[in-house]
Each structure stands twice: as C-alpha cells, then as structure tokens.
C-alpha cells in the first residue's frame, strides 16, 4: 500500500488546512497495518497535529514501530519531536498516565541495580536512558550494534520492562532501592 494519504495530509498541513490534514492522517492511520512503517508515519503526523498529552502517547508508539521496522531516519525524527515537545504537554502526559503504565517493583526483595545488571548491560542502559541511539551507544562503547541490542534485550528482561521508554523509571526505582 502506498501511503499517499500521509503526503496529502502533509500538504494540507503546509497549506494550513488543519481539518483536512487531520482527516487524511486519521484515514491513513485507520488503514495501516498494526506494525508497519506506514502506521509509524501516520502516528507521527497525528502527533504533530495534536496539542494535548495524547501527543506523547502517539509519538511513543511511532518510536516503538520505527525501532521494530528498523527505520532509523524516522525513528530519529520522532525522537526529536518527543525531545522538543512542550514541557506542559509532557507534564500532562505524566499526570494522565494510568497507574499500570508505571513500572512495577520487581517481585522479591529489592536488589540494587548493580547486582541485577552486568557492568556492560549497565553501561548500555545508562546511555540508552540518556537518549543515545543503538548506533551511538555502539560507537561510544566500541561494540557492535548487535551487541547493544543483545544487552538491551537482557536488560529489559532482567528489569521486567517491555520498552525503552519504561527503562528510566525502572532504573530510578532500582537506584533508590
């Protein structure tokens, strides 16, 4: 499927016809496969049209999709959109987040994060939390991108998180334990 509706929505946005842009972006989103580059593009466009805390949710989902699809260009663009989101929108999104969106404490007695993660996993996790891409982490630590991905996979499993966006809160919880 050619995502022509996204191009049309972007054109309407450029022409300052917000209603038409929203209509075509939403139509593309409704037609896109659950995990596809097209869905990620539509989510990112919908986020740019939203001035509420939903913007963070839409961007987060698009980031996850771009990461799964390996679309590094749009992943970085969506991460930039997230970094430049107005502070009041981010604060509202944090207030609106359901309790189950926050990471839960690991079962059993709390362990310091240094005993949970290996030294290599801890270094990779710290850079990931700072917003480094997998490629940048690999360059910084002189390892391959594949090794970074393996460390992150093990880190997610050990810390019982399912996405990169949940990693900062989990590390904070473990550091305070």
Notes on the protein architecture:
This protein is mainly alpha-helical and 177 residues long. The chain folds into two domains: 4-96; 101-176, Arc Repressor Mutant, subunit A (Orthogonal Bundle). Helix content is 69%, strand content 0%. The protein is built from eleven helices and no strands. It has helices at residues 4-14, 18-31, 37-48, 54-69, 72-83, 87-96, 113-116, 119-129, 134-141, 145-159, 167-176. Helix 1 runs antiparallel to helix 2. Mean pLDDT is 80; it is low at 100-114.
Q: Which series of helices and strands comes N to C?
A: HHHHHHHHHHH
Radius of gyration: 18 Å
Q: What class, by secondary structure content?
A: mainly alpha
C-alpha end-to-end distance = 49 Å
Low-confidence stretches: 100-114
Strand content: under 5%
Mean pLDDT: 80
State the major sheet: none
Helical run tally? 11
Q: How many runs of DSSP E, i.e. beta strands?
A: 0
Helix content: 55-70%
Query: How many domain regions?
Result: 2
Shape: elongated
Descriptive keywords:
177 residues; mainly alpha; Arc Repressor Mutant, subunit A; 11 helices; 69% helix; 0% strand
Topology:
Elements: H1 4-14, H2 18-31, H3 37-48, H4 54-69, H5 72-83, H6 87-96, H7 113-116, H8 119-129, H9 134-141, H10 145-159, H11 167-176
Helix pairs in contact: 1-2, 2-3, 3-4, 4-5, 8-10, 9-10
